[in-house]
Amino acid sequence: QKEVEQDPGPLSVPEGAIVSLNCTYSNSAFQYFMWYRQYSRKGPELLMYTYSSGNKEDGRFTAQVDKSSKYISLFIRDSQPSDSATYLCAMSLYSSASKIIFGSGTRLSIRP
Amino acid sequence: GAVVSQHPSRVICKSGTSVKIECRSLDFQATTMFWYRQFPKQSLMLMATSNEGSKATYEQGVEKDKFLINHASLTLSTLTVTSAHPEDSSFYICSANWDREQFFGPGTRLTVL
User: Fold this and answer.
1) Is B28 helix (H, G, I), strand (E, B) or coil?
2) How many Å apart are CA B91 and CA B50, to the nearest integer?
3) CA A56 → CA A47, A52, B103, B112, distances in Å?
4) CA B94 to CA B50: how far, in whole Å?
5) Of A44, A95, A103, the CB nearest to B100
């Protein structure tokens, strides 16, 4: 069993839709949860960073962490074609500056 | 700020040759850098943690004699793939720590013929 499971997609939605991306994990010791966006042939860039359980909102993006279920989500409201990318969930025991375990990534396409 | 560069962006080499990939933090100093490998449609897998002035720490299953890492300064880490084979073809990405966050480079695509 992988430490972090993520549906690879691809996921295609119309512009303006709400997108829900999810990951599950097995190691209950993870404390830091991140979402990265990766465009084709580029390095990932940090979108959201959450410590422990709870919600965090940043503009059109909302990250949720449910440690009791070992389940994290990223919601994108009013999705735009420019949001088309691969979204990677990631988690760490100590911080985003230490060893990070990535999910396999979900390819998202927003149709104009 | 917090920009990480990699050179080259892509490289093609013959089987059996060695390839060096550079990772630089352009506007900050990084005592710790990480090297990842990403196969097509797969996730980033951590290969090793590179600390300035000391030996790298390799993840289980990564051959340290094949993937040589040198972190000689606070702004530069290098990954040398020795005696490369086609199965080493992959996307290699580095990251550098700054202000409790990892900043990723744009990646290097290695193709071994």
Assistant:
1) coil
2) 18
3) 11, 11, 21, 43
4) 10
5) A95
- The answer to whether A10 faces chain B, any CB pair under 8 Å, is no
Q: Yes or no: say if B37 and B43 are a contact pair by the CB < 8 Å rule.
A: no
Residue A51: C-alpha distances to residues B33, B39, B62, B103, B110 (Å): 22, 29, 30, 18, 35
- What is the per-residue pLDDT across B76-105, written as a single tens digit (0 to 9) for each? 999 999 999 999 999 999 999 988 889 999
Residues B57/B13, Cβ–Cβ less than 8 Å: no
8 Å CB contact of B105 and A43 = yes
Tell if the CB–CB gap between B107 and A43 is shorter than 8 Å.
yes
Task: Report the distance separating Cα A96 and Cα A90, nearest Å.
Answer: 9
Query: How far does the CA of residue A7 sit from the closest CA of chain B (Å)?
Result: 11
